[in-house]
Amino acid sequence: MNMKLKIYILYALMISCWGTTWYFLKISLQETPLFWGLALRFIFAGMIFWVFYFIKNERIKFTSEIKKVYFLYTFLNFTLCYFLTYWAMRYVYSNLGSILWSLFPLCVAGMAHFYLPDDKLNFRKTLSMVVGFIGTILILYKGESLGMGNVVYGIIAILISIVLAAWPNIYLKMHHTKINTFHLNAVGMTTSGIIMMLISFILEQGQSMPMDSKNLFALIYLTVPGTVVTWGIYIWLFNHMRVSQISYVAFFPPVIAIAMGWIFLGEELPMVIIIGASLIILGGFLINYQTRVREIISEPGLLSVTED
User: Fold this and answer.
1) d(CA 48, CA 45)
2) Backbone dihedral region of 303: left (phi > 0), alpha (psi from -120 to 50 degrees) or beta?
3) What is the DSSP letter of 248?
4) pTM, entire model
């Protein structure tokens, strides 16, 4: 298969899985303890990645940069960011969580300006960040109507997780390190799953996940399409695309999540929130849109987009 076509197909698959994951996350949190749910999701996903890694039988050469990448993804992305997002989703609508994560490309672009020489801010990128910021203010203004309980704190938790999640992506590109997708995910998710399980044993004593079809299917979906497929493709893409292109993944899932939340969970959005969400998504679009582009395959498997 042509590498360019393969990248586009996997990119579309990743977007579809991430968009539907928000619905199943909300279902899972209705009855499954937070840390226990995360522990099961990451331990099972990690085991699957270990199987893939041993089948591929590739040697890993650990440099100091690679060790730091593993550390950042394990403790920032998989552990802290997922905890913050899970905690927030107990209070906010599933569609709101996906909408807020559309700010991810803007956050990546802001950091990239200071650390990646070929990803500097220009007028278009700066405008997109301003547009996204205005959308965020509108959502915060009406945030209390988008869930139950600590909605505003949930929104803040997601915003913090977005900032934390952006840094490992920047660090990975800063050092031009080629990562073994299966091994990074296997190590990071297994470690994070064990951490979550230990915390669950301490804080969630007496709580358990009902072993019915609804909760089991939600766990399976979050583990396989929602973790193995999405993160497997996501890390693999770093060897083939620019970081700004990869962060564009945050633009499409909200469309799927909004539809599923409205149809299956009865999550309705006020007009102010729709406007705010549109601005955030527009900001995510502008950060990557280029009026005149040319795609080059500079080396086998490497897709890049540059301005003329």
Assistant:
1) 5
2) beta
3) G
4) 0.83
Count of Cβ atoms closer than 10 Å to residue 203 Cβ: 12
User: Token pair of 167, please?
Assistant: 């840094």
Measured CA to CA, the distance from residue 153 to residue 84 in angstroms comes to 10
Q: Where are the alpha helices (DSSP H) in the chain?
A: 3-29, 34-56, 64-72, 82-89, 94-100, 104-115, 123-141, 151-174, 181-203, 213-223, 230-237, 243-247, 253-264, 271-286
The per-residue pLDDT for range 168-177, each reduced to its tens digit, is 888 877 766 6
Residues linked to residue 297 through DSSP beta bridges, in sequence order: 303
- SS3 for 303? strand
* One-character DSSP codes across 72-104: HIIIIIIIIIHHHHHHHHTTB-HHHHHHHGGGH
Phi, psi (deg, nearest 5) at residue 79: -95, -65
Q: Could you tell me the two tokens for 262?
A: 């409205």
- Record the tokens describing residue 230, joined without a space: 């999405």
What are the structural domain ranges in the chain? Answer: 3-307
- Helix (H, G, I), strand (E, B), or coil: what is residue 251? coil
Q: Distance (Å, rounded) from C-alpha 62 to C-alpha 183?
A: 11
Exposed (0-12), middle (13-18) or buried (19+): which is 61, by Cβ within 10 Å? exposed
Secondary structure class of 107 (helix, strand, coil): helix
* CB proximity list for 62: less than 8 A, separation 6 or greater: none
Instruction: Tell me the three state secondary structure of residue 298.
Output: strand
178-215: pLDDT as tens digits: 778 889 999 999 999 999 999 999 999 989 889 899 99
Radius of gyration in angstroms for the set of CA atoms belonging to the chain, rounded to a whole number: 19
Question: Cα–Cα distance between 286 and 284 in angstroms, integer?
Answer: 6
Q: What angle do CA 75, 144, 20 make, to 5 degrees?
A: 55
- Which residue has tokens 């960011």? 81
The kind and range of the H/E element at 280 are helix 271-286
Residue given tokens 């990448």 in the structure block? 69
